[in-house]
Amino acid sequence: MWFKKKEQWHASQHMLRDLALLLPCASVHNRASINAIYPHVADPEGKPDQYFLECTILSSKNDAVDDLNSAVLEKFPGEEFTLFGVDKAKGNQDDYPIEYLNSLNVSGLPLAHLHVKLGCPLMLLRNMDPSHGLCNGTHLILLEIRTCVLKCRILGGKHAGSVAFIPRVTLEPSEESFPIPLSQCQFPVHVAFAMTINKSQGQSVTHVSLDLHSAVFAHGQLYVALSCCTSGERI
């Protein structure tokens, strides 16, 4: 399918054909990769859990992942809800306007304005209850939205099908990862139609689309993205 030789990557003919088709597409809303991976996402019928376990779109940057998730969520049936987080700068609040803090996209933190629909897939961003399957990276289906808690169903693993309740929590990035002393109160989840390549490490997915509009940072990152799929013919 693909192999590494003298620091060069060699792709199979079907991969080269797909790249030729996908790379010229400028608008994320018109990308053929979304239709290829989620051809039935707009159907009003309920999707089986396996549908979202077997498909994903991978990209190297958080901003690109957010754009892809928004594009697929727009096609997803149902009413859209916005879950507002509370961002605060510890110390002198006047130095950082709320609008600026809400616009920050920090790796490992949820969005300040989290757009979701009932039935959409989510990914947990924190270890909350590992003994019951609620770990960083756990996939969930959103069942119900309440003021301070999300009712979800766990996808995959030995706890698949179990109902879990995800509360709002206060999250603070480390000083090493983020220079602003930020404190955020939000549900620790992210819409999971697409995810970053780094987040996919160690996972196996049946159908994978690689978004290469944003260049991968290194050969190792491309290797992780390619090895995520269980067959080169389904990339």
From the structure above, extract its key features.
235 residues, alpha+beta, five-stranded antiparallel sheet, three-stranded parallel sheet, 6 helices, 21% helix, globular, disordered N terminus
In short:
The chain is an alpha+beta fold and 235 residues long. It has 2 domains: 11-38 and 202-235, no CATH class; 39-55 and 76-192, no CATH class.
What gap, in angstroms, lies between the N and C termini?
Answer: 10 Å
Mean pLDDT across residues: 79
Overall geometry: globular
Low-confidence stretches: 1-8
Beta-strand percentage range: 25-35%
What this model shows, in words?
This protein has 235 residues and is of the alpha+beta class. The protein has 2 domains: 11-38 and 202-235, no CATH class; 39-55 and 76-192, no CATH class. Helix content is 21%, strand content 28%. The chain contains 6 helices and 15 strands.
